[in-house]
Amino acid sequence: MCIVGARPNFMKMAPILRALAQHNPPLPALLVHTGQHYDASMSDRLFADLRLPTPDINLEVGSGSHAAQTAEVMKRFEPAVDAHKPACVLVVGDVNSTLACTLVAVKKGVPVVHVEAGLRSYDRKMPEEINRVLTDQVADRLYTTERSAEANLVREGIDAARVCFAGNVMIDSLLSSREFARPAADTLRAHGISPAMLESPRGYGVVTLHRPSNVDSAAALEPLLKVLAEVAQQLPLVFALHPRTRANIDRFGLAHLLQPECMAVLPPQGYLEMIGLMQGATMVLTDSGGLQEETTALGVPCLTLRENTERPITVEQGTNTMVGRDIQVIRNGVADILGGRGKHGRVPELWDGHAAERIAADLYRWLSAGAG
Ligand code: UD1
Questions:
Q1: Residue 147, pLDDT score
Q2: Residue 218 C-alpha to ligand 1 middle, in angstroms?
Q3: Nearest CA to 34 among 83, 95, 123?
Q4: Is the sign of the CA dihedral 338, 294, 310, 65 positive or negative?
Q5: Best label site of 183, 184, 211, 316, fewest CB within 10 Å?
């Protein structure tokens, strides 16, 4: 059983399902959507863009507090495991659905496979860090995207024999979807915004923000929106707004900081739209985990508005620079890129578009050997 719940899971699962089906012999899979993300723009649209099949099971849990959401996934997932008796449960990433399904499976004696294991921000205030640490502790087979992840796991007492460095499935999706990317001008036009802003001499920037630490308080969100308004005066920005961020901008009365003449404010975008926007951008400003990796693979400079990253290879080898929430550091980062001093980086080891195939091959061997 393969589990997806929230937006960043979908691009990881799509290539895995294809690789399981194409493996010789095929590895049959049931796709379970927990329903953590349910808006058309956060879920259905991405299924279509990523050529993901309709889920076999939808648990329709929806939103809630961390406890309520995690508990609801567990309650609804347990009967599905009982009914289908899977050989293993495969989870990806670090969202609440990842941990919830892991806990159900492991307590039923069903082996858990974690794709994108071992990433650590070492910031336990991030809900995803808790989900990562706990999922990895009880997972039976762990696939990593960068070599530092195995060292993190071994430090936590996890047997290296359970760990396999397979590469980055999100980059599999990126590479297989690039040719279908929607041009940025079309995306703006679809929202009634003139694409002329993309043709400013410096190009344009892309922004996403949704981490609770950045958007859940006015004290954090207001200065970030102010600095973005300032950046937009030098470089037009396309801002794809997550529903959490949209709601908080309205709640805190900050909508006046979004400046329509130099900022295209869009609803959450489809996958092909986001790739189209990113690959033509001068820079990306984000707090997303996925965008840090995608910009590295695309060679586009990225400024990450967080104090830490669980994906250090994007900084060490890729195009990512951590700028935190310090306004002056953010300004300097923007000035560096606009001054031609942005990082070009190189593509990390095994981010080659074939990670899912390696996972399918290893999974087949591992399950055939009794998943021990
Ligand atoms: C979740 C993940 C985060 C991931 C992000 C990507 C956890 C702990 N967090 O955060 O790691 O980076 O997804 O988007 O699992 N909402 C909608 N429509 C939806 C989904 C959510 O309007 O389809 C709104 C609801 O008001 C909800 C809020 O967004 O309460 C937050 O959604 P939730 O799934 O709890 O967390 P995310 O912030 O999306």
A1: 97
A2: 18
A3: 95
A4: positive
A5: 316
